[in-house]
Amino acid sequence: MEAGHDTIAAIATPLGVGGIGVVRVSGPDAVAVAHRVFIRPGGLPLTRLQSHHVYHGFVVDEQGERIDEALLCVMRQPHSYTREDVAEISCHGGVMTTQRVLETVLAQGVRVAEPGEFTRRAFLNGRLDLTQAEAVIDLINARTQASHRAAINQLDGALSRRLRAIREELIQVSVYLEAGIDFPEEDLQLVSEAVLCERLRGVATQLEALSASFARGRLLRDGMAVAVVGRPNVGKSSLLNALLGRDRAIVSPQPGTTRDTIEEELSIDGVLIRLTDTAGLHTAADLIEQEGMRRARIVVERAELLIVVLDGNAALTADDLLVLTETAEAPRLLVRNKCDLPMSWTVADLASSGALEPVLDVSALRQHGLHELEQTIVRQVLGNEPLSQDEVLLTRARHHQSIISALENIRTVRHGLQHEMPLECVALNVSEALQNIADVLGESVAGEVLDRIFHQFCVGK
Fold first, then answer.
1. Are strands 86-92 and 66-75 parallel, antiparallel or unpaired?
2. Which of 298, 331, 334 is nearest to 316 (CA)?
3. Homologous superfamily assigned to 223-382
4. CB-CB contact of 26 with 85 (8 Å)
5. In the chain, where does the domain assigned CATH 1.20.120.430 lie?
6. So what's the architecture of 137-219+396-442 in CATH?
């Protein structure tokens, strides 16, 4: 695949009022365009633009009218983001100013860049592989320290290096198999089937570890959907507010105050939690409450973790048992709220109803026990393994599916070698595993896949 041969431009900073706006130009005519639209103080034209130097001057239109005072930086290929000639004009922020600078550039025969086209050119020109290109958008969209760290790690090539090491192992296995296929009359056996199986076992172990990392990596990238559920008036909204550290949900002693779902995000130890407060689940309800309960049950079905809130200061009710029954099959944390007041039931009472999980005591009002609850939620995301600086994680379903396919092919190869299947069949599965890894790196991915990936980007990146 080759990058486009035309020159593109876009505003690379968010539209709106700001201190600075950047118009980025990339392609074979980028430097020539910079010469035509940028003049030095006093109206003198630029002579020779040196790479990676900053020039002060003015952007002017075709009639010579000044558009803005600005700074210009030219980065000559291949030492630029796209590995093409790039010019970046830093002007004053603001919708009108940046738009006029862009229009002045476009008047020179440059076209507007499509979403993600600068990064796409970086990928097509070999500056980034596809996992690193995808990490760019993850870095832009990162909302927590953990997701930011995971994106930086991938952008730095941690996943790419791991996959290339695995690929090298598979290439060596393929060489041995092909030698046996091409020279059968020589009885050429560079290594035994047992040795090949052992090498493939090591490859499978690495692929299994990568595949297993997807659950953790996806949650770090997208966050965990957590729903707060319980019967009315147990303190669900108070707990939501306490976790958020602000009054987001209305709190009232009147049962049924929460009639609809309330969604908020918070970061706990750098992990994104998408928290939803739901209407109380109970048996008797008016039509509005019934609709709220219907929406609550939809949230419960989609949530990856439930915080089941029970009132420790009141006896367990039929509605409490209803909630416990409806959530029994889901991943959940049991929380006994109002622990600052006398407790009206014990954990043994709860166990008799079939709820055998540990119970966390909290007081949403006094903010007791919140830290332990937060740490328990984080453990649901990360397990007992803290985040490490150099951890390699799969964060995208596309990567995960390709790794699973590669792993299945490796298992087929091992089975074939152990049962003396024809080497041609075995070698075919090795080739398919290599193709699976190439798909992750973007070395043989279809154009429509690239379109889908890069259209997730903003214009200008």
1. antiparallel
2. 334
3. P-loop containing nucleotide triphosphate hydrolases (3.40.50.300)
4. yes
5. 137-219+396-442
6. Up-down Bundle (1.20)
> CA-to-CA distance for 72 and 53, rounded, in angstroms?
8
| Residue at 430: amino acid letter | V
Tokens linked to 94 = 């603001």
What does pTM read for this prediction?
0.80
Helix ranges (DSSP H) in 309-367: 318-326, 347-351
DSSP for 401-440, please give it: HHHHHHHHHHHHHHHHHHTT--HHHHHHHHHHHHHHHHHH
The lowest-confidence range among 91-105, 110-124, 387-401 is 387-401
Asked whether 337 and 233 are in contact (CB, 8 A), the reply is: no
Contact indicator for 31, 76 with CB cutoff of 8 Å: yes
Residues β-bridged to residue 262: 277
Q: Which residue has the tokens 């365009």?
A: 33
Q: What is the pLDDT of residue 70?
A: 94
Query: How many residues comprise the chain?
Result: 461
Which single residue is written with the structure tokens 């090949």?
Answer: 196
Phi-psi bin for 42: left (phi > 0), alpha (psi -120 to 50), beta?
left
* Cα–Cα distance for residue pair 101/24, rounded to 1 Å: 10
Give the model confidence (pLDDT) of 196-205 as tens digits.
Answer: 888 899 999 9
Q: What is the pLDDT of residues 241-264, one digit of tens each?
A: 888 886 664 444 544 444 456 888
Alpha carbon distance 389, 402 (integer Å): 25
Provide φ and ψ at 8, rounded to 5°: -120, 160
Looking at domain 8-129, which of 2.30.30.40, 3.40.630.30, 1.10.10.10, 3.30.1360.120 is its CATH number? 3.30.1360.120
Could you tell me the sign of the dihedral formed by the alpha carbons of 233, 236, 242, 244, in that order? negative
